[in-house]
Amino acid sequence: MEPGLTIGKVAKETGLTTKTIRYYELLGLLPKPPRTYSGYRLYARNDVERLSFIKKAKNLGFSLTDIGEILAIHEAQQAPCVHVLALLDRKIKEIGQLMGELDEFQKELSHLREESAARVEQGIKEGAICSIVDRGIHAKGQEALTWLKSRRKA
């Protein structure tokens, strides 16, 4: 198909920024498009489809490395779906681990809350600012919360 879409039009159609599109091109996820005499990139319809695929794969939690592997398998004229199933299995396992960490974190926070409420009611003062915070939290639980927040933003 004849190229003819500017990066701005592609960005608008895909919901990606022009910076993201150029980044994907730099990583090799998107082939370098031909340019006009004045240096403007011109994309084809299949580039828009490829970018839409990349965006959907990112929404499933696949890394850019994972996506590059999927695209490479496809470009080798092989069906990448078996590989995608393996990636999904890995994602499901990771999420299960994160859920376990979040569950443990919730239990620890509940225990800390109960224990601390009793200390506060008794007027026990420990720590420079607040003994509840000084006692700390489960680091893995905090990592799981951070991951969860990043997924919500995406």
Word description of this protein:
It contains 7 helices and no strands. α5 crosses α7. The mean pLDDT is 86. With 154 residues, the chain is mainly alpha-helical. Helix content is 68%, strand content 0%.
Any chance you could write out the topology, listing elements then pairs?
Blueprint: H1 7-14, H2 18-27, H3 45-59, H4 64-75, H5 81-121, H6 131-134, H7 139-153
Helix pairs in contact: 5-7
Tally of alpha and pi helices: 7
Structural class: mainly alpha
Shape annotation: elongated
Average pLDDT, rounded to a whole number, is 86
Rg, nearest Å? 24 Å
Please summarize the sheet with the most strands: none
Stretches where pLDDT falls below 50 for ≥5 residues?
none
Number of strands: 0
Q: Into which percent range does the helicity of residues fall?
A: 55-70%
In short:
The protein is mostly helical and 154 residues long. It has 7 helices and no strands.
Search tags:
154 residues; mainly alpha; 7 helices
